[in-house]
Amino acid sequence: MSKYKAIYDRKGLLAEYENGELTWVREESGKSKKASHQIMLDIQPYKSMVDGSMITSRSKHREHLRQHNCIEIGNEKMQNTPPPVLTSRREMLHRRLGDMSDRQANQILAQLRRN
Prior knowledge:
By secondary structure, the protein is α+β, with helices and mostly antiparallel strands. The protein has helices at 58-67, 89-99, 102-114; strands at residues 4-9, 12-18, 21-25, 46-47, 54-55.
C-alpha cells in the first residue's frame, strides 16, 4: 500500500505526493510574478544590555550602537591589514624560530654545533 499526500490551497489541489515523491504539481499558467513593494516591519522594543534603556525603533537602535561604540555581530567590517614588516634581523629570526617545530630547531642547532 502506497502513502498518498495531497496539498491544497485557496485555489484547490496544489500538489500530490506518493511514497514521499512529488508526482503532480498544479501549473500556474498565465501568471507571472511581478515585482512589488516589500515592507520591512520595525523591530520589537527591547531593553538595552548596555545601559538599560528601551530601544523602540531601528533608528534608535543604530543611534544607540553608535553612542556606545558597539557593533552587531555579523555586521562588522573586516579590515585587511598587511602583516607587520620585520625591520630588524633579530625580529625576523625570533619570528622564524617561533614558527619552527622543536625537531626543526634541534636540527639547525646540531648543524651549527658541527661547524
